Amino acid sequence: MLEEHGRVVALDGGLAMIETVRITSCQSCEAKSTCGQGSIAEVVGQKSCIISALNSLSLQVGDEVVVGLSESTLLKSALLVYLLPLVLMIAGAGGFQWLYGTNDLVAAFGGGIGFLAGFALVYLYNHQHKDDENFQPMVLRAAREEGLVRMHDQ
Known about the structure:
By secondary structure, the chain is α+β, with helices and mostly antiparallel strands.
């Protein structure tokens, strides 16, 4: 289970809107002062992100929580989003070349059609499963149970 710490900023029925802070791996690297990636990470800085997660706890706005998403869900989603358009692009290019000749323009057009078809299928799949609880992050526990300090004390 992939876990991330965050703070509840809003509640909407069975969902909690949670603000998380993106932290790059550069911030914990010892070579960050001499690395180009570390310099870029300093300029970009930390960014917050608001996600919706299934809420099975009695949370209140301002609570520190730990949200999680299963590794298999993340892997399936990444394969679908990245691999399906690529495979359909290659299949489209090959199919159009086989049907209409070995012209490079024909292959490029077929590849573009396949690529767009892949993204259309990803969009349709996402739209069909947007309310599926298996693909939603969920609130695992309150961070106060772990004895953590508040992330956003002011």
